[in-house]
Amino acid sequence: MKKIDLNADIRGSSGKGESRRLRKNNYVPAILYNNVDGGTLLKVDANELNTIISKNGEHVIVKLNVKGKETPAVIREIQRDPVFNSLIHIDFMPVLLHEIIHAEIPIMVLNGEAIEKNGWVINRQIGMIEVEGEVEKIPSSITLDVSKYKSGDVLKVADLEISKEISIVSDYNDVILSIIQSKQILESIQTEEKQLDTVEI
Fold it and tell me: What is the pTM of this model?
C-alpha cells in the first residue's frame, strides 16, 4: 500500500450539529481509533482527502499528521452522502509497519477494449478480493489483463498473479469474470441456426 501524508486537526466535540458545521466549512469529521479511550476525534480537509482517494483509492496507508505527530493508519470505513456521494465521515485505524493485516482490495480490469472489439462482453462477478500480509506490502489494487482471453473463458481468483509476499483469503474458486458473446451476436447466431433448420426441412 502507498503511504500518503494527510494533515488532520483535533475537533473538540461530536454530534450531528458539529458534523454539519464542519462539513459546511469543507472539513470531513473523522476518528482515529485506539485501544485506550476508544479514539481521537479529528477533522480533515475535504479537498485534500478527496484528492488522496481519487488518486490512490481507499486502500492506502495514510500518515496522519496531528499536531506534528505522525501516525500510520488505514481507512477502516468511509460514509458517503447517499444522494451526492460526498464524504460525510471517515474512520481511521492505526497500524504498525510490518504488521499483518486482513484487507479487501479492488481488482482492476485492463484492456477491456480488446474484448469489446471482438463483440464480446465482460461479465463481472466480483470486484474485490480479501488478502492478508504485511501492511506496507499489500497493494492498492490487483490488475487483471483480459486482452489474452476469449469468449467462453472464465477467470477465477486462482488465475490472479499476485505477489508471494501476501496471501489470498478469498475462495480460489470464486469467479471474477467471464467473457461472453454480446446479445447481438447471440441473436444473429440463433437467427442463422433457425434459417438452417428451415432450409433442412
Answer: 0.66
Sign, CA torsion 44/50/51/54? positive
Residue pointed to by grid coordinates 479511550: 37
* Direct distance between the N- and C-terminal alpha carbons of the chain, in angstroms, rounded to an integer: 64
Distance (Å, rounded) from C-alpha 163 to C-alpha 56? Answer: 19
Positions of CATH 2.170.120.20 in the chain? 101-200
What residues contact residue 141 under an 8 Å CB cut-off, 6+ apart?
A: 57, 59, 105, 106, 107, 108
CATH number of 101-200: 2.170.120.20
The fold of the 3-95 domain, in CATH, is: Ribosomal Protein L25; Chain P (2.40.240)
Question: In whole angstroms, what separates CA 146 from the centre of its chain?
Answer: 19
- Confidence at 145, pLDDT banded by 50, 70, 90: very high
- Is the pLDDT at 146 greater than 90? The verdict is yes
Please report, as a single letter, which amino acid is at residue 108. Answer: M
